[in-house]
Amino acid sequence: MSVDFRKDIFAKERDDNLNEIGKPTRRQDILGHVTGRSPFFDDHRFDGLLHIKCVRSPHHHARIRAIDTTRAETMPGVVRIIRGSDVPVNLNTLLSLLDFGKDDEPVLAESKVAYMGEPVLAIVAQSEAQAHEAVAAVRIDYEVLPHVLDVEEAIKPGAAVVNETYPGNKFEFYGGNDHQKLRFGDVAPAFARADHIVEGRYQMAPIEQAPIEPNGAIAAPQTNDRYVCYTSTQGLFFSLGTVAKLLNVESNRLHFIGGTVGGGFGGKVDSLCEPLAILGAMLTGRAVRYVLDRAEEMQVSAPRSAELWYVKDGLAADGRIIARQLTGYFDSGAYTRLTGYGVVKCIGHLPGPYTIPNVHSDAYCVYTNRTPATAMRGFGVTAVDFAIERQMDKGARALGMDPFEFRLINAYRDGDMKAHRRLAGNCALIESIQAAAERVDYPLGAEFRAMTSMSGGGGERALIPPTRTERLGMLPAGTSTVEVKTTAPGLVPQFGVDLPVPATGLPAPSPTPTPVPAPKAPETRATTYDYGASGLSAPPAPKEVPPATEPAALTKSQPGPVTPKPRYSRYSSLGNRRR
Amino acid sequence: MMVKKPLEFRLNGTEVAVFADEAENLLSVLRAKVGDLTPKYGCGQGGCGACMVTIDGRTVLSCITLAETVAGADVGTLAGLSGERLDPLQEAFMDGFAAQCGYCTPGMIVAARALLQHNPTPDRDQIIEAISDNICRCTGYEPIIEAIQSVVAQERAGGS
Amino acid sequence: MPVKIESMADLDAAAQVLAGDKTAQVLGGGTILMPRVNAGDVALRRLLRISDPVLRKMTVGGPEITIGAGVSMADILAQQGLAFLHPAAVCVGGPAIRNMATLGGNLFAKAPYGDLAVLLLALGTEVSLAGGRTGPGAARRDPIEVLFRQSTDARAPLVRAVHLARPKAGQVQFHKMARTNPRGPAVVTLAVSLEVSAGRIAKARIALGGIETRPCLAVGVARTLEGAALSEAAITRACAEVLRELTPRSDALASGWYRGEMAQLHLRRILQQMM
Q: Is B117 on the interface with C (CB under 8 A)?
């Protein structure tokens, strides 16, 4: 497989004289991989190891009337049966560590189950086979409740309440909003003057990450009242914080060891196994292993959420998209996990890589009685991209235009204002489409072959139009100035930007971030990252580099009055993840 | 008390004797009883190839092999491949970046070694066929195929 | 009680056990039952391992071919005399699965598995059963389709071997359509056997896998072909018949609608190749 480095494009933005980047190198962990000696969580052996298997809901939605474990308790090898009432703090939401969302999910269901496969009991036994036998011997009396598996059905009045924390079946974002909004310009008059209106409805199924190594953890008591936990988690500190909260223990009593992950792709951020493995070790005083089998991985480990999108475009006869309206529903399943966060990411991604002067978008995170959804490779972005790109094909058809050329007309140019009020820079979409067309001998017209993302942007296209909002009415046009600084060879050009007042009416962020004191980290070994890996093993330890000043246009975070509290910084890498 | 079945076989040329549980699979015996951790659990269904080993030189999925069926047989795992020096396949996987998370790697190398044992000069399609029991979910198939091809090329060059 | 494994040296004795204990099942290569053992399926109580050498026997030299139920896909692929079965045997999993999977297991595999069984069905194979459940008549033979009308689990007969005649050159065509290649379960598997005499189709057998839970014969499709010469018109008539007699199943791999479309498409391609 040959990788084609197009060094002719953006040549001045890249330095070919770096010591590591661009040079072949061996992975630091590869000797362990090829000899089978890399220490995955399950490659640790303990005498008298106990095993957990869960009793799971056979219903999409049901009230638990009674649980009878009489037979199971006396079965050979059964050491302990853990119920929801044994979990010290049996309600959590994963991103509570970031103050995102309300606690809504138990480790083990107590009063009701909200999806098929939801765990109700954890059986700790001497062997997996004995745990399976005991699981089959438990009798649970369920009162089956009406369920809802469709996002549009779920938000209708009278729909079954999936998740009592959110009785309307919609997640509440910061400020109590039931959806995320994006407003840029004013779509209504633009639709009225458009030559074509193109509408589409797009649906994407959930996608299971399916790492070859399943989710799992082994926990064991250590001396000094501490517990060691070998885990497959993608977020070691994140998982540690989650367990500390659920089990109501100081995090310094937990000793997490991980970093060697057999594939994750977002499917190992939910801390599904660590809380029960450690609780099992606490309750039995023995080493306890809890691993999902493949059927559990497929049924109950969280996939990327399903999404449903409505897209409406207003097109000018010359091929420009003059307005785009998007309404999206993310299927979070029964609990929040990371889908609400995915919606926030999604809004920042709209309306796709195209310069559109009028954009209106609402995106909802909806609860249904399906398996809870979570992170998975570009969640919040990939599915809506599918919708947008199908819509682009549809638009090209409506105009009688070539779909490549239709995209080239609308693609971002450097210096264009994006709908979320950041200036576009290093927009290689035009060049990428040209390169793709060339590779497959796709004929592009001469004017399209001559296009470049490096000219034609800015100016009028850098302006923020007057914007219609529901709450504040019409906001005046924003202003922005773009100054492309001359750069020495090998340096990235910097876009200096005066940020306009954002449409929310909130003040722009202070240019200097408030310094945050570094907290004491809990003890955690064998990891050089905490939340940023996408299922790969630990990357080489980063070398010390002098701090660099980030160009203002590229600073992250939404403008807003919220001053970061110091405790956020413990989990600050959550905001920096790349997957 | 669970029934234990005495079981003797050779693992990578060395005699081993263990007590297997009733209906225990070979993967579990290798990992939990013998302590060879190179075969991995991925699915328990024979669907992913992470647990691949050889029995009398033929590849099998150890997670769906009843342990007691290997009585008296020669079992081979990745651990038996390298002694003081690495197998050329291991070197090629290292040079060619043919592992990402590393979890499928033991099964991949066992499959590739079994192929080269029976056919030292496979073509690309035969290599793909030979690793078709093995899933790499990081989808690094191309570097894996190229690493195997590079060993074929080396062995061709060395043999001529 | 956890599952119990028993080893038995004699096939007919095993058949007696099966006849007397409805919970007992035969463990062959392990590719179907071991995943259930690992998943803690408490319905499995008693598994029989049968080491009787008769199960591993193959007779390929003469006009009639006999293959023991314990013969693996790899064994079949190693046998040049069975080349006409290779296109199906090579579709079963990858090389490691084929080292394990047995012919007997393939006969009882539920869709989307059981590709070799589809080809055997088209070839008009007969099965001989061990004594026990079917009475002492161990020599009795049934057409293979009798197996596919029965349940796959409990009460399944114990197959000793399959028997079939070697097909003439060009008589049989096999095709499997999967979503992933080279290894993937079937969207649809097709096997077509046409016996032609004086330019007309004297006898047609069309077997499909993936469509129903077990391999099935498209009898109506075969009837439209019999007596006719193989022409585009005859092929169109035959393809139009497929959905009149079969209702394809839906699963995670494909909807029933898609399976129906693919069955017709690939039947057309196979018949055109045989023209």
A: no
Average pLDDT over chain A, rounded to an integer = 85
**The tokens of A87 are what?**
């979990």
Nearest Cα neighbor of A122 from A133, A111, A108 is A108
Give the contacts of A277 (CB within 8 A, at least 6 positions apart).
A52, A217, A218, A219, A229, A288, A289, A290
Q: Which residues of B touch C74 (CB under 8 A)?
A: 58
CB contact residues (below 8 A), chain B span 44-103, against chain A? 44-45, 47-48, 50, 77-79, 82, 86, 89-90, 93-95, 97, 99-103
Residue from C177, C181, C171 nearest C189 by CA:
C177
- Find out whether A34 and B86 touch, Cβ atoms under 8 Å: yes
Q: Which chains form contacts with chain C, at 3 or more CB pairs under 8 Å? A: A, B
- Residues 6 or more apart from A355 whose CB is under 8 A from it? A410, A411, A412, A413, A416, A417, A418, A424, A457, A461
Q: Which domains does chain A have, with CATH numbers?
A: 174-196+307-484 (3.30.365.10)
Contact C2 A133 (CB under 8 A): yes
Q: Binning pLDDT at 50, 70 and 90, where does residue A560 land?
A: very low
> What are the structural domains, with CATH classification, of chain C?
4-108+124-165 (3.30.465.10), 172-274 (3.30.390.50)
List, in order of start, the domains of chain B with CATH numbers: 4-79 (3.10.20.30), 88-159 (1.10.150.120)
Residues of A in contact with C38 (CB under 8 A): 293
C42 and A129: CB-CB below 8 Å? no
Q: Which pLDDT tens digit goes with each residue over C69-78?
A: 999 999 999 9
The whole-angstrom separation of Cα A362 and Cα A343 is 10
**pLDDT tens readout for residues C175-207:** 999 998 888 999 999 999 999 999 999 999 999
Helix, strand, coil shares of chain B as percentages rounded to 5? 40, 20, 40
Residues in chain C: 275
A264: which chain B residues are within 8 Å (Cβ-Cβ)? 101
User: How many Cβ pairs within 8 Å bridge chains B and C?
Assistant: 86
- Tell me the per-residue pLDDT of A445-465, one tens digit each, with 9 for 90 and over: 999 999 999 999 999 999 999
Q: How confident is the model at residue B15 (pLDDT cuts 50, 70, 90)?
A: very high
Question: What is the residue-wise DSSP string for A221-253?
Answer: E-GGG-EEEEE--S-HHHHHHHHHHHTT--GGG
Q: In terms of DSSP bridges, do strands B52-55 and B74-76 run parallel, antiparallel, or are they unpaired?
A: antiparallel
Q: A359: number of CA atoms within 13 Å, CB side?
A: 24
Contact assignment for B61 to C5 by CB distance below 8 Å: no
| CA-based nearest residue in chain C for residue A75 | C1
Q: Please count the residue pairs, one from chain A and one from chain B, whose beta carbons lie less than 8 angstroms apart.
A: 118
Segment 21-40 of chain C within 8 Å of chain A by CB: 38-40
Q: Which of B137, B141, B151 to mutate to test the interface with A (most CBs of A within 10 A)?
A: B137
3-class secondary structure, C264: helix
